[in-house]
Design brief:
Layout lengths: L3 E3 L7 E3 L10 H7 L8 H18 L5 H16 L4 H17 L7 H15 L8 H13 L1
Antiparallel strand pairs: 1-2
Helix pairs in contact: 1-3, 2-5, 3-4, 4-6, 5-6
């Protein structure tokens, strides 16, 4: 988890604590890899399609083409800069998918979150890894429900 601190300088806002900040991605790494990476991995495309179905089933929400495309492009950039594909996808679910769920107000919302979290883990396309950040945020969301 990233902790924030006050920089102490007026007008500079709040910054991530230096010991908790994520490492920067390398633009040079991305540009060197960009010509090699032209289409999203078929496994990820299939996962995003399945994820869309789960969103529809549990929350009557859709993951449209634009966010799917943005997720795939982010993953390409993240991996090109020496990041792990599993972590890239996990971060994108936290930032692009779970916020959509936040505004769903169904009577069985808590149970839907539990089932969705289980399905997410079962569908996860990276064997031996799991969506750690997504599961944690879904648990927090369930606690607030």
């Amino acid at each position: 988890m990233i902790h924030f601190y006050d920089s102490g300088h007026p007008g500079q806002g709040v910054l991530p604590h230096p010991t908790e900040a994520l490492p920067p991605l390398s633009f040079e790494g991305f540009t060197a890899q960009a010509p090699k990476v032209t289409t999203p991995d078929a496994t990820v495309v299939g996962f995003l399609s399945d994820l869309n179905k789960e969103l529809m089933d549990h929350f009557a929400l859709s993951l449209t083409y634009r966010p799917r495309f943005q997720i795939a492009k982010f993953m390409q950039a993240y991996v090109s800069a020496a990041g792990k594909p599993s972590e890239a996808l996990d971060l994108q679910i936290v930032s692009k998918v779970i916020p959509k769920i936040r505004y769903s107000h169904r009577g069985d919302f808590g149970e839907s979150l539990t089932q969705f979290s289980k399905q997410l883990e079962q569908m996860w396309p990276f064997e031996g890894q799991e969506p750690i950040h997504s599961k944690r945020v879904l648990e927090l969301l369930k606690a607030q429900a």
